[in-house]
Amino acid sequence: MATKSDNNRAWLFVIPVIVLVAFNAVVPLMTVVNYSVQETFGDNVFFWHGLGWFEDVLRSERAHAALARQLMFTFTILIIEIPLGVVIALTMPRKGVWVSVCLVLMALPLLIPWNVVGAMWNIFALPDIGLLGRLINSMGIDYNFTQQPLAAWFTMILMDVWHWTSLVALLAYAGLISIPDAYYQAAKIDGAKGWAVFRYIQLPKMKRVLTIAVLLRFMDSFMIYTEPSVLTGGGPGNSTTLLSIDLVKIALGQFDLGPAAAMSLIYFLITLLFSWIFYTVMTKDEGQ
Amino acid sequence: MSRIGLSKLSHSYIDTPTDAADWALKEIDIEWSDGGAYALLGPSGCGKSTLLNIISGLVVPSNGRVLFDGRDVTELPPEQRNIAQVFQFPVTYDTMSVYANLAFPLRNRGVSEAKIDARVREIAEMLELTDMLERRAAGLTADAKQKISMGRGLVRQDVNVMMFDEPLTVIDPQLKWTLRSKLKELHQRVGVTMIYVTHDQTEALTFADQVVVMQDGEIVQIGTPVDLFERPTHTFVGHFIGSPGMNVLPCEVREGAAYFHGRHVPIDAGVGRPGEGARLEIGVRPEFTRFADDGGVPVTVVRVSDAGRHRVVETRAGDTRINLLTSESEAVPEGEAHLEFDPAHTRVYVDGWISEAA
Question: Is residue B77 located within the same domain as residue B180?
Fold first, then answer.
């Protein structure tokens, strides 16, 4: 008689992962949750504060302004990078030696560490010694990103576009080259011209990779810290203080652990919510 | 609709072809009449798809001309040739509805919406797509998508020729038959010239009035399905068409008579005069081979396989394999046996090509 016995030793394979996830995600997150509901005056003494910090953050004008700047930044770069990336992908060659040249050139900005990008652009855009800064000033435009909020925004967006459009272009390119020739041949035979080919063949076939591109760019830009922090440090004034920069100021500058923890959690939930909305909207008619 | 002519056509994908193997298509001359149904049949790599792409204008041939109704269209791009093509893998515009898919070629040509509507509904009716006109093309089955690709060709009334590049490859076996007969029916209804490329003999023989059999970039035979079956002009055709293919037996020819293993094989069509040192073979289909009481070719029965309504018997005469078909009821001898060939359907081939007395 053969009874089926469960072999539980398979759990041994799973335990290391559970431990790893616990230490790099669950424990830090729960620590933040812990801080967010307590008040401390140092010396590792904590007092229960309930949801007070959350109320404070949600009512704080400073947090609202940072969130508004964050949304402004993210949507601006999305509006520029996604179409620009698609256009670049469309103009990239499909065959021949130039393919690898283009791919390497496109990948270069992605390989540069974030703080280096910030430092590079800081120097590049300085009005007195930077190439870009001097060039703009020499055209008769008064440009100084360390003093003018508009110039600071312009530089910050230009930097992000330079750094990350490649990612969108490479993803879109991957989508484009996966389209079989038969589609283009059929389109020719059906008499479709350039725009119709893009609208009905290329765009639908790129949709999946573009969904990924939008999600990645949304999440990355919404949580961006290093580059603007090195470039402008949130200034001039608070004009480029994005959510993450504000958060670091609260947590490490003012050492307000409670409000910072509450803000982190709210920040996290907003990111999650937007990602979910993007994903749902962009994949909504795939089920049919 | 039009006559298609291919004149001294050849093509190489290499810029400077040196030897025969560099040519994807060796010199080809064909004249196809208006409204016919033709098939290009051959194994993978025989050049049939190249030929199709030359007719559709996706490939410009190295030499020769393509004529539509006598007009030279060799250099014209596909969109100016008024052709339609159905590809191996169904091409549909996935974001559009079935209706919009069918209307697409007409909208691109600026036809009025009223005319488009009438035409799309007519074609959808023919293809049995009427129920799904409002659905999106994305979620449909492969056979429905393939019908849509056909439909995009059929809606246009100015189409010179409709081409099919192995269109049933991704269709389920049960549906292949339905779609094939649908295609045949459509051809009779719309009367447009159709060219069908395939490596499947059943598809070619059931669809076409005339089949072009190709091998290594060359046309080996053009004929009706009956011709190809009853009088293959090349052993390749005999072997490629038929299941199992034609038996090919090495033979000798003396004074206009053929001998296999020293035994005379009667042939109604006679034998031409073979040149010195040529390869001589007798070709006879398994359908025209039967057991004889004695006095025929002595063979050993190797294997019997049941193919439903008939049996395939594999025998050997020395090194030569000879297949024959027998009915279910007929007793198959075991071990040693004798075979005879129907003289009306037995022929001699010299270096692969048919040889008959003039």
Answer: yes
